[in-house]
């Protein structure tokens, strides 16, 4: 092999990225392809490397500190020695049209969007490496040809062999090559450009033999060629500057990337790369990246991208209205658990179709979660139009869905955000739509709620409470207040109910503001355990210091989570043992709703409490759905009439309910405590019904520890030392 035919096997490729891990990834991917990856951590470093290497390709990140990729590319293009080097932007920025145009204006030949397919990267790099090798081969071949002509000017055989070698290189080029000639001016049309030369690769692109193409005009070869291809050729011919263009050539049904330059007067050379396979792979990747595979709808990523565009349009256009609907199916999980995930998937596909049928063509429908869907409604005439769409969706979902012989009925909770609104990021708007949906669900499902800023404030307050509750126990911020319970027959003290309060700084947080959050997070278990131990400890102290009545008790509320703890009975026994409180002094209060959730399990634990010697009270009685059969089986001592009935006994229905509860309790051998007594009339009426005990603001509000001691000192004689 002569020097003219030798080509360097290893080709330099420049990778520019401010992240070292990205550079290592690129080097690892390309090392086995005969590529020497030269790395630069900034645009400045890249420019310094330009004179030292003959790069076949530059892989350039866009977002870099100091000098970004666009600026670096422009600097490279201004240098005559480096302006020919192809640049591919490897970036994570959105491939919006404005970014693409800016990149091509800066000299880019292509984009790769992170995360990219490794095979696509390798394929792209291999194309340009081969082009570089072929260019170097042509360069060496040209030099060799000149030397051969100089040395063997008199030898026609040597000249013929040299031409043959050049022809072999030309015909074996990986990319298509076509030389156009024109005898006209720089403004020649497609009817005047003739095909003067082409190689075998170009024949494959045209799918026609060389004989059918040579010496024909561009208009004859491609009579229906798109106008922008003709404009591109004429622009290069007119300016004399090399250029690149990528687009779809409909007549050939191919995506082509064309590099064009002017080799001489009246000539335009075109190097064509068939990128159809790559574009098809990109389209497949786009579908996988932005499409939900189950329903075929847009996925969350595409939804947020479209939402960002809608927000941007609302900033630029006056009176532009849009809306976001966030929808979650109510009670969908039982479908998966009872009918299986295949049936659940079919339900989701059907729901997606029904929503899509209602949406307009310009709207975006997306699956944003397992059973969550989002809609972007654009170009709205008014806010009422968005609510009408939401109601139509709700009505459509109410239709019976047949699945494996079952008739399924669904409702959906929906949150609506009406735009335009002041949001910085689309995620914030979607978050508020989901928040409005949660408010709709709290109303029982199948409801629609429009987002209001008060919802965000409540959510932020809930988050603050959640976070603060985690450390409140360690900081000993919880307190117990004690509400007195009196015998209605003689107004003597019958006991106290221990109630939890939270002393957060200077503020005493009421239970309704933190107990639901403690229930939700599970923190009610350690908080309730502390309250139980503290109540027993304080009651044991009262028992030591005061002559308490025989039936005096301290009532402690147990939450559903506490009652469900497997070691509940053991912990209660330990609290009584450690504090020394007599078991008969402790009365455990559980709600009627808790009792009926799992009656069999509750009966077992209640029997354990009775065997321990503690008393049991059913709290808020009358608000749930107790079964009389179960009530007879429960080993309980007391029914507590809910304050909602006591406070409004002027209503005949409530009066009847209270009388019925008292009569029922007495027939079952239970005593009764009435909550929420605020007037003398209420107390007298309850006493006439033989209701044993009562509590409420008529007697006393819940008292802190020192005030409870004062009341004990008044109502109960102190034991002598």
Topology at a glance:
Layout: E1 11-16, H1 20-30, E2 35-40, H2 43-49, E3 57-60, H3 69-78, E4 87-91, H4 97-106, E5 108-113, H5 118-151, H6 156-171, E6 176-181, E7 194-198, H7 200-206, H8 218-221, H9 227-239, E8 243-249, E9 254-261, E10 267-274, H10 276-290, H11 300-316, E11 323-329, H12 333-339, H13 341-358, E12 364-369, E13 372-377, H14 383-397, E14 401-403, E15 406-408, E16 412-418, H15 426-442, E17 448-450, H16 453-472, E18 478-487, E19 493-504, E20 507-509, H17 515-521, H18 524-545, E21 553-557, H19 560-563, H20 568-579, E22 586-591, H21 592-597, H22 599-612, E23 615-621, H23 628-633, E24 638-641, H24 643-646, H25 652-667, E25 671-674, H26 680-688, E26 693-694, H27 705-715
Parallel strand pairs: 1-2, 1-3, 3-4, 4-5, 16-17, 19-21, 21-22, 22-23, 23-24, 24-25, 25-26
Antiparallel strand pairs: 6-7, 6-10, 8-9, 9-10, 11-13, 11-16, 12-13, 14-15, 18-19, 18-26, 19-20
Summarize the structure in short.
This protein is of the alpha/beta class. Helices cover 46% and strands 21% of the residues. It has four domains: 3-138, Response regulator (Rossmann fold, 3-Layer(aba) Sandwich), CATH 3.40.50.2300; 175-281, Beta-Lactamase (2-Layer Sandwich); 291-451, 2-Layer Sandwich (Alpha-Beta Plaits); 465-715, EAL domain (TIM Barrel, Alpha-Beta Barrel).
